[in-house]
Amino acid sequence: MQKVIMQLDELSCPSCMQKIQNALTHENGVAKVKVLFNASKVKAEYDENQVDSETLKQAILKQGFTVKDYKIKEIS
Amino acid sequence: MSIWLNQHKNQIMIANGGLILISLASYGFKLTSIAQLSMLIAGVIGLLPIISTAISALRVKVVSIDLLVSIAMIGALLIGEYHEAAIVAFLFLIGEWLEKITLKKTRSAIKQLTDLAPKTAILLTDGQEVEVDVDEVEVGDHVIVRTGQQIPVDGTVVDGSALVNQASVTGESKLVSKTLDTEVYSGTVVDNGDLEVLATQVGEDSTFGKIIELIEEAEDSKSKQQTFIDKFATYYTPLVLVLGVIVGFITKDLNLAITILVLGCPGALVIGIPISNVAGIGNGAKNQILVKGNNAMDALHQIDTFVFDKTGTLTQGNAQVKVVEKFNDQALQAFMYAASLENHLKHPLGEAIIKRFGDASMDYQVTHSDVIKGQGVVGKVDGHELIVGNQQLMLNSHIQLSTENLTTINRIQDQGLSTVIVAVNQQLAGILGIGDVLRADAVSALNELRNLGAQKLVMLTGDDQKVADQIAKELNLDAVYANLMPQDKEQLISKFQANHQRVAFVGDGINDSPSLVKADVGIAIGSGTDVAIESADIVLMRSKLSSLVHVYGLSKANMKNMTENIVLAIATVVLLLVGLIFNKVNMASGMFIHEISILLVILNGMRLLKYHPKLDDDQGKSAMDKLKLNQKLEE
What we know:
The structure holds 2 protein chains of 2 kinds.
Chain A: E1 2-8, H1 14-25, E2 30-36, E3 41-46, H2 53-62, E4 67-74
Antiparallel strand pairs in A: 1-3, 1-4, 2-3
Chain B: H1 2-7, H2 9-28, H3 32-59, H4 65-78, H5 82-114, E1 120-125, E2 128-133, E3 142-145, E4 154-165, H6 167-170, E5 175-178, E6 183-184, E7 189-201, H7 207-219, H8 224-251, H9 254-263, H10 267-286, E8 289-291, H11 294-301, E9 305-309, H12 310-314, E10 320-326, H13 331-342, H14 348-357, E11 366-372, E12 376-381, E13 384-389, H15 391-396, H16 403-414, E14 418-424, E15 427-435, H17 442-452, E16 456-460, H18 465-475, E17 479-481, H19 486-498, E18 503-507, H20 513-518, E19 521-525, H21 530-535, E20 538-540, H22 545-581, H23 587-607, H24 620-634
Parallel strand pairs in B: 9-16, 9-18, 16-17, 18-19, 19-20
Antiparallel strand pairs in B: 1-2, 1-3, 3-7, 4-5, 4-6, 4-7, 8-20, 10-15, 11-12, 12-13, 13-14, 14-15
């Protein structure tokens, strides 16, 4: 399992959270998604054999958000 | 496409607004067709970013506000109400823009903190210094930090020495000296000197990283009310869409149907609670108070009983040896052994012994040490059996105290000092009277807590009754419990809770994590230690009781603010519904009221950022208290 932490451009609508949440959970292999509205961050845990972080980033870009930077961490 | 539209929302908003102005001017000059055309274009341009957002959301099965607004606008365009469509788009876009600006301002308090996180590090590899991104530093790496630079990792000094400003982690701006083998923290700043540091914790695992993560999670933590409203909003929006369609079919009044769609945006209700939350947590962060989320705020504002640990909480915790009683010639030697024994245990009384007798005794070999909780410590120093602790420990260790000894002990305790008895090889060597100084702001802070609504102020301590009573008198406490073991503290808290009291426990995070966890709200004061950060609900990084007053007042203000926002949001919905029934609200004015209500809840939330209790800090009256108390203790 890996965990990606993405810093987005300032989020300003609470409904954005649900969009991002759904956009990521619809990808295969994504286990846990947490959208931090005020910190404008997305934390997602996923199985790197099924999906890569780039796909997740694209899913968010498709929703019209900008991903400023992202970090990947190995988790057990 | 959707990204482009998103990034150019501001330009679209301006174009849309400009066209509306042109159109209105054209009406003035009776150029009706130009006016109509401008409005149509304005409507269509405004629709683009909104509908694009709506569609991308719909792809992931979210019925968003944008969808309602898009359908309403298309409807308006179809029935020729171009100006309604154009104005709704303008209001919606400008509303979003204003929300973004005000939200940014509200979040600024926390942003300032996270911006303090180190970004680069000078990595030492094969004797070469390379500047790298802080994320590239791994545990075990050596980094170089020079004057004016930020320490990028938690670690141990392996070379050099420096004065370090640790305000970002401890809240204390006093410079701390760092030399070989001392620990340094990420996010702190080298004021003067050079250090080579061996990284032990990096990034999110460092103390500062944890603090930031904690605050980021806290500002987005959800209260019970929030969870309910989120659920509500998930169903509310699609429901409004269905309602609009049904009303449209039954009444054949498209105008009414699209008005319902616009009114169906749950805006202020959805944003009202998070905005109060982020502003409240942000206020805390700005004042070096970490509140772990909205539930902690909620619980704190209902607290009626504050239970304080004595040492390090009501007192400064840096106790001093004030009385030395020697029973034989070897007493001084015994005290030095005791200092060595205490050297690797972190106990306030022990620290005092080390401070007084430690310097010359550091060469002694400690071969065994065993802490007996609430009693003291036994061990072996340079081959001698040491027993250092209270009367109970002597009793358990079969060391006889004569009547004369007991009189001495009583005399010392009557001065409000703690006694530590030292025995070497089963022989009584001497007694130390150790006293702690009350925190400068203790009296004023406790008064303020009462003014803010605290009913009972209670102190718990492992010290004996006399010391406790002395302090209780000074501070006008409602109750004191002395001679307690750590687990007794926890049990007392349960007892208060069984008595329907809502209990906050305030401790320094050393030895009292069970109580921090047990209490309705656990508050750790004056330490950014890992244990405190993990077990407390609230961490006061500044070692000041005025921070406690601040956060208690803040919690009350925060909950009031949240209630105001909920009332405001519900009032808006009711107002709009009534207006709709009496046919006084149309699409544009509905959108206007809706956007105003969102801005009002944000502005109301922002007030919380400025919250500050009246009597705070170490100034004025509390400075007087400090003088008075210290005089008393000296006497």
